[in-house]
Amino acid sequence: MMGLCESDAGGWTAWPPHEHAEKREEVYVYFNMGNAFGVQCFIEFTIVIENSNIKGESNMNLSITISSPGSKFAPIVLQGEYITQIYKAKEIGYKAVELHIRDPKTINHSSIMQAIKENNLSVSAIGTGQAYVDDKIYFTSIDKKIRSAAVQRIKDQIDLASKLNSKVIIGTIKGILPEDKNGRVVAIERATACLKECAEYAKYKKVNLVLEAINRYETNFLNTAKQTVEFIEKIDSSVIGLHLDTFHMNIEEKLIGQVIKEYSSYLAYLHFADSNRLSPGLGHLNFSEIILALKEINYNGYIGVEALPLPDPYSAAKQALSCIVKLCN
User: Fold this and answer.
1) Across the chain, how many H-helices and E-strands are there?
2) Are residues 147 and 175 in contact, defined by beta-carbon separation less than 8 angstroms?
3) Alpha-carbon distance 208 to 238, whole Å?
4) pLDDT score for 50
5) Does residue 212 lie within any of the structural domains?
6) CB contact at 8 A, 192 and 234
7) Is 238 exposed, middle or buried (0-12, 13-18, 19+ CB in 10 A)?
8) Total number of domains constituting the chain
9) 98, 252, 253, 306: which one is catalytic?
10) Is residue 273 part of a domain?
11) What is d(CA 31, CA 39) in angstroms, rounded to the nearest whole number?
12) Distance CA 305, CA 279 (A)
């Protein structure tokens, strides 16, 4: 069916009431425009999100971050009692969760494992940042007791991860470096010794660790992918991989997609958040480019959504899921 509408220069035309095909296809051709013409095409379709398994050239899975209430560690989407949030993650459509746990000895392992099983979910990773933010224990400390406490905390996280078949994130717990050069060298040696001890225990428990590159405004130790990979090579352990976060990469890296491809052999885990640390799609990061890079390297690991719970946790979780699945499919 076709028809002709006329309008004065600069005005709009309006087609009388008419029928559409199933997908409401329309084509408008504009003429009498001097030395130009225009073609405008319309098609209407609906995207249905069934779950967070992303199909394509690679097999990536989305995971949503969960933490207990009261933590100062802010960029967690679902915060509250773990069991309740696990059920909420399933309701929203996620197939995996990333659990941020300050101290594994203070939670009920069996109830969490039961909730995971009942909802047919997997645990992508255990976040450990609260040990540094809330308890002030870290690898580079000059105090041997603090370093020992940090190592033991990671070992406790590894014990839990072995039950959940998940990775353990080594992020802010690695600590910061002093300003003087000699002090920095010694602090790096302390962190190296601590991480090697954790890696040996993780290997024994058959758990993988992922070392995160974090931006300069949050730490002065291992900010870029290059620095983090060099440190991983120094540790020389088969159970330590690279953990990248798009929010941090936006600050530290020139081309995110290129960095992902350059260090693809080390990449073991990812965090997604937009440039403003909101859910993907609410800032200016080019996630199409990022996902294309992941498909090019056949990344088949997890992507954890670690973003601020704004405007509210439920909306943030839904936004991330719909945005990423839409871009992938």
Assistant:
1) 10, 12
2) no
3) 8
4) 47
5) yes
6) yes
7) exposed
8) 1
9) 306
10) yes
11) 9
12) 7
- How far apart CA 199 and CA 207 sit, in angstroms, is 9
- Span 277-321, pLDDT tens digits: 999 999 999 999 999 999 999 999 999 999 999 999 999 999 999
Stated length of the chain: 329
CA atoms in the 13 A half-sphere facing the CB of 239: 21
Tell me how far apart the alpha carbons of residues 291 and 287 are, in angstroms, rounded to a whole number.
6
Evaluate whether 197 touches 139 at the Cβ level (below 8 Å): no
Looking at 53-57, 90-94, 235-239, which range is the least confident one? 53-57
What is the rounded average pLDDT of the residues 163-182? 97
Q: Which residue has the tokens 């088969």?
A: 238
What is the per-residue pLDDT for 28? 72
> Are the CB atoms for 203 and 237 separated by under 8 Å?
yes
Angle at 126 between CA 122 and CA 132, to 5 degrees: 165
3-class DSSP state of 287:
helix
DSSP classification of residue 174:
G
Q: Can you read off the two tokens belonging to residue 124?
A: 């992508």
For residue 69, the enclosing domain spans: 53-328
212 is catalytic: yes
38 part of a folded domain: no
CATH number at residue 142: 3.20.20.150
Q: Do the bridges between strand 38-42 and strand 26-30 make them parallel or antiparallel, or are there none, so unpaired? A: antiparallel
Closest by CA to 270, choosing from 65, 113, 92, is: 65
42 within some domain = no
What pTM did the predictor assign? 0.83
Of 57, 179, 212, 230, which residue is the catalytic one?
212
pLDDT in tens, 13-52: 555 545 555 445 677 777 776 667 776 765 544 334 445 6
